[in-house]
Design goal:
By secondary structure, the protein is mainly beta. It has a domain of about 170 residues. It is about 10% helix and about 45% strand. The strands form four sheets. Strands 1, 2, 3, 15, 16 and 17 form a six-stranded antiparallel sheet that branches. The two termini are about 15 Å apart.
Amino acid sequence: MIMTVLALAVQFSAPARISTIDTGKLKGEPTELAWSPDGTQLFLQTSERDVTGMIKNPRLFVMAAADGKPQPVDAAPDWVTDYWTWKSNKYAPGSKTLGVEVKEDQRLAVATASPMGGALAKGGTSGDPGGGGTSVEEASSHAAQMQKLHVFLLTLNGENVGEFVNQQFLPGYTFGWSPKSLAMLAYRNQSGKLGIMSVEGGKKQQIDSTKDVILPAWSTDGSKIAFLQRAGKTKFDLYVVTVTQ
């Protein structure tokens, strides 16, 4: 399947699965994915989260882009810092004004589902005989069980390109800039699919076969997009999309 971004001479191949990464063995969850300058290697960082959603205990791996088998390393390669700086920057490469808008907000949400059970949960009323229904007092109690949610919302050209709820905001986790020559953004859209957007025009396309996408990452020459897709409780599939102009 070929996906084309409207008004741009760019095409995207169907995603090719490179490997399945079991983070249960590596410990933690993926929090960084980066390309080497020559496109032959990928860097992977996994991290654990504390009770407040902040990441801790990062673990570092390097893998060949061809097979996606993580090998532990003591320190990130020199190229990772430069790559991650432009990949996850607020602003598009080469721009100081055009970029991802980050809004921090508080929301209220019901801490537990209401009604919890009985006839109301089945579409009946609290007066149904034998229903064990939810009383007005119980419903009021549930409504009062509200919790504050700390939210970071990321948008570009009015499109949602990332959201963090009660978790640490990680730049580059839900989006990745292309090299300056392409002026595009790869991101996880609201459906969880891989989306691609032109930076200035806002033209966008999604890769329909994807889901639960994280860490989209363009290669430095703009010829590939790597990303991880959740494949189980602790497993993530590594995919690569080929980009042609």
